[in-house]
Design a protein that fits this description.
It holds the Pfam family Ribosomal_L22. GO terms for molecular function: rRNA binding; structural constituent of ribosome. One of its GO terms (cellular component) is cytosolic large ribosomal subunit. Belongs to the universal ribosomal protein uL22 family. The chain contains 4 helices and 3 strands; from the N terminus they run βαααββα. With about 150 residues, the protein is an alpha+beta fold. It has a single domain, classed as Ribosomal protein L22/L17 (Ribosomal Protein L22, Chain A), CATH 3.90.470.10. The chain has a 3-stranded antiparallel β-sheet. β2 and β3 form a beta hairpin. α2 runs antiparallel to α3 and α2 crosses α4. The radius of gyration is 19 Å and the shape is flat. The relative contact order is 0.21.
Length: about 150
Protein backbone atom coordinates (compact mmCIF):
# COMPACT_ATOMS: atom_id res chain seq x y z
CA UNK A 1 0.00 0.00 0.00
CA UNK A 2 1.85 2.99 -1.35
CA UNK A 3 1.08 6.54 -2.37
CA UNK A 4 3.40 8.97 -4.17
CA UNK A 5 3.36 12.76 -4.49
CA UNK A 6 5.72 14.18 -7.09
CA UNK A 7 6.88 17.76 -7.65
CA UNK A 8 5.46 19.17 -4.43
CA UNK A 9 6.60 22.81 -4.39
CA UNK A 10 8.41 22.94 -1.04
CA UNK A 11 11.99 22.22 -0.08
CA UNK A 12 12.65 18.58 0.90
CA UNK A 13 14.38 19.65 4.09
CA UNK A 14 11.17 21.25 5.37
CA UNK A 15 8.97 18.34 4.28
CA UNK A 16 11.25 15.83 6.07
CA UNK A 17 10.41 17.47 9.41
CA UNK A 18 6.79 16.40 8.94
CA UNK A 19 7.70 13.02 7.42
CA UNK A 20 9.91 12.05 10.36
CA UNK A 21 7.12 12.94 12.77
CA UNK A 22 4.67 10.36 11.41
CA UNK A 23 7.12 7.57 10.55
CA UNK A 24 6.47 4.41 12.57
CA UNK A 25 3.10 5.52 13.96
CA UNK A 26 -0.32 4.03 13.37
CA UNK A 27 -2.28 5.53 10.48
CA UNK A 28 -5.02 6.92 12.74
CA UNK A 29 -2.46 8.48 15.12
CA UNK A 30 -0.58 10.02 12.18
CA UNK A 31 -3.81 11.58 10.85
CA UNK A 32 -4.53 13.18 14.23
CA UNK A 33 -1.00 14.55 14.51
CA UNK A 34 -1.07 15.94 10.96
CA UNK A 35 -4.35 17.72 11.76
CA UNK A 36 -2.77 19.52 14.70
CA UNK A 37 0.63 20.28 13.17
CA UNK A 38 1.19 23.95 12.17
CA UNK A 39 3.49 23.17 9.22
CA UNK A 40 2.65 23.87 5.57
CA UNK A 41 3.62 20.35 4.51
CA UNK A 42 1.15 18.74 6.93
CA UNK A 43 -1.82 19.34 4.58
CA UNK A 44 -0.39 17.58 1.50
CA UNK A 45 1.12 14.88 3.73
CA UNK A 46 -2.30 14.19 5.27
CA UNK A 47 -3.84 14.02 1.80
CA UNK A 48 -1.14 11.55 0.74
CA UNK A 49 -1.73 9.43 3.85
CA UNK A 50 -5.47 9.38 3.13
CA UNK A 51 -4.70 8.26 -0.42
CA UNK A 52 -2.52 5.39 0.85
CA UNK A 53 -5.28 4.38 3.29
CA UNK A 54 -7.83 4.42 0.46
CA UNK A 55 -5.48 2.24 -1.63
CA UNK A 56 -5.23 -0.24 1.24
CA UNK A 57 -9.00 -0.38 1.71
CA UNK A 58 -9.69 -0.78 -2.01
CA UNK A 59 -7.01 -3.32 -2.91
CA UNK A 60 -6.62 -5.41 0.23
CA UNK A 61 -9.83 -4.72 2.23
CA UNK A 62 -7.86 -3.63 5.31
CA UNK A 63 -9.25 -1.45 8.11
CA UNK A 64 -7.48 1.79 9.11
CA UNK A 65 -6.91 0.47 12.67
CA UNK A 66 -4.65 -2.28 11.29
CA UNK A 67 -2.31 0.05 9.36
CA UNK A 68 1.07 1.43 10.34
CA UNK A 69 3.19 4.05 8.53
CA UNK A 70 6.11 1.84 7.55
CA UNK A 71 8.17 4.27 5.46
CA UNK A 72 8.04 7.90 4.41
CA UNK A 73 10.73 8.97 1.96
CA UNK A 74 11.26 12.56 0.81
CA UNK A 75 13.56 13.03 -2.17
CA UNK A 76 14.66 16.13 -4.01
CA UNK A 77 12.67 16.96 -7.14
CA UNK A 78 13.51 19.32 -9.96
CA UNK A 79 14.81 22.77 -9.10
CA UNK A 80 13.06 25.67 -10.83
CA UNK A 81 15.67 28.27 -11.66
CA UNK A 82 14.58 31.90 -11.61
CA UNK A 83 16.42 35.20 -11.24
CA UNK A 84 15.91 38.34 -9.19
CA UNK A 85 16.88 41.69 -10.74
CA UNK A 86 19.59 43.54 -8.82
CA UNK A 87 21.25 46.92 -9.10
CA UNK A 88 23.32 48.03 -12.13
CA UNK A 89 21.49 45.69 -14.48
CA UNK A 90 22.69 42.48 -12.87
CA UNK A 91 20.65 39.54 -11.57
CA UNK A 92 21.01 36.96 -8.84
CA UNK A 93 19.75 33.37 -9.07
CA UNK A 94 16.75 32.04 -7.17
CA UNK A 95 16.27 28.29 -6.79
CA UNK A 96 12.74 27.03 -6.15
CA UNK A 97 13.01 23.52 -4.75
CA UNK A 98 10.50 20.71 -5.20
CA UNK A 99 10.05 17.39 -3.39
CA UNK A 100 9.02 13.85 -4.28
CA UNK A 101 7.26 12.12 -1.36
CA UNK A 102 6.72 8.34 -1.15
CA UNK A 103 4.59 6.96 1.69
CA UNK A 104 4.22 3.24 2.41
CA UNK A 105 1.81 1.59 4.83
CA UNK A 106 1.99 -1.90 6.30
CA UNK A 107 -0.25 -4.18 8.34
CA UNK A 108 0.80 -4.83 11.94
CA UNK A 109 1.53 -8.51 11.35
CA UNK A 110 3.86 -7.76 8.42
CA UNK A 111 5.97 -5.23 10.34
CA UNK A 112 9.19 -6.40 11.90
CA UNK A 113 10.52 -4.67 14.97
CA UNK A 114 13.05 -2.02 13.92
CA UNK A 115 16.53 -2.03 15.44
CA UNK A 116 17.54 0.85 17.66
CA UNK A 117 15.93 3.14 20.22
CA UNK A 118 12.62 3.84 18.46
CA UNK A 119 11.00 0.42 18.59
CA UNK A 120 7.41 0.14 17.49
CA UNK A 121 5.34 -1.74 20.04
CA UNK A 122 2.10 -2.64 18.32
CA UNK A 123 0.39 -5.03 20.73
CA UNK A 124 0.64 -2.74 23.76
CA UNK A 125 -0.83 0.37 22.09
CA UNK A 126 -4.10 1.21 23.87
CA UNK A 127 -7.13 2.29 21.85
CA UNK A 128 -8.03 5.89 22.71
CA UNK A 129 -10.82 8.11 21.51
CA UNK A 130 -10.16 10.97 19.10
CA UNK A 131 -10.78 13.59 21.80
CA UNK A 132 -8.18 12.07 24.12
CA UNK A 133 -5.68 11.73 21.26
CA UNK A 134 -6.20 15.37 20.23
CA UNK A 135 -5.73 16.52 23.83
CA UNK A 136 -2.43 14.59 24.08
CA UNK A 137 -1.12 16.04 20.81
CA UNK A 138 -2.07 19.57 21.87
CA UNK A 139 -0.33 19.11 25.23
CA UNK A 140 2.86 17.85 23.53
CA UNK A 141 2.83 20.69 20.99
CA UNK A 142 2.66 23.51 23.57
CA UNK A 143 5.99 25.31 24.01
CA UNK A 144 7.49 25.34 27.48
CA UNK A 145 7.39 28.66 29.33
CA UNK A 146 10.70 30.38 29.97
CA UNK A 147 11.45 31.53 33.53
CA UNK A 148 10.98 35.22 34.19
CA UNK A 149 14.07 37.42 34.39
CA UNK A 150 14.74 39.37 37.59
Amino acid sequence: MKAVLKSYRQAPRKVRLVANLIKGKTASRALVELDMLPKRASGPMKKLLMSAIANAKENDKIMIEDLLVKEVRVDQGTILKRSMPKSHGSASPIHKHTSHIMLELAVYTEVEKPKGKNKVVVADEPKVSKKVALAKVKAEAKPKKKPAKN
